[in-house]
Design brief:
The chain has four helices and eight strands. The chain has helices at residues 2-24, 66-76, 119-132, 149-152; strands at 27-36, 45-46, 52-61, 83-84, 91-100, 103-111, 139-144, 147-148. It is an alpha+beta fold. The protein starts with a helix and ends in a 5-residue tail after the last helix. Strand 5 and strand 6 (103-111) form a beta hairpin.
């Protein structure tokens, strides 16, 4: 019985500790942008190949700055229903975001993978809109490895 009291006390302490830790990490809200393919007749911003760019509201725990959290959420968001995350085809990992005035330079490690020419405007739209939703950012450039994203946007190997 003596050990049972200690186990119960420890259990209560652990639950309280976890709850206090969760409450200390602030939640943030933002949007990520996904693709609705052309045949779905879904309203959204039209991008290449007749597809639509669809915003999806996200609320999650902050992991770095809100911009870093939004990008990490986009890079890991799994496809659901009729909306597609084209970036999931790639193996991109956020390394850093450097902001000077209103310009963001976003650095990724990994490899960008495209399935066809329609993926080029899809990837660009998803990344740009996810970053440019923040009022503090007016322009953005993306670097993959040590090269600008545009040099990776080719179907040639």
């Amino acid at each position: 019985m003596k050990y049972l009291k200690w186990v119960i006390a420890l259990f209560i302490f652990l639950i309280w500790s976890c709850r206090a830790f969760e409450e200390s990490i602030p939640e943030v809200s933002f949007e990520i942008y996904l693709i609705a393919y052309s045949g779905l007749n879904i309203d959204g911003e039209r991008i290449g190949c007749g597809d639509s760019l669809i915003s999806l509201p996200i609320t999650t725990y902050k992991n770095g700055s809100i911009i870093e959290t939004a990008l990490r959420s986009l890079l890991s968001y799994q496809n659901k229903s009729d909306f597609n995350n084209i970036i999931l085809k790639s193996d991109l990992k956020l390394q850093s975001i450097d902001i000077k005035n209103t310009h963001a330079k976003v650095n990724f490690d990994g490899k960008l993978s495209l399935s066809g020419p329609c993926d080029i405007p899809r990837v660009l739209a998803q990344l740009e809109k996810t970053i440019l939703q923040f009022d503090s950012i007016k322009s953005v450039e993306f670097i993959v490895g040590d090269k600008p994203l545009n040099t990776h946007l080719s179907l040639k190997d």
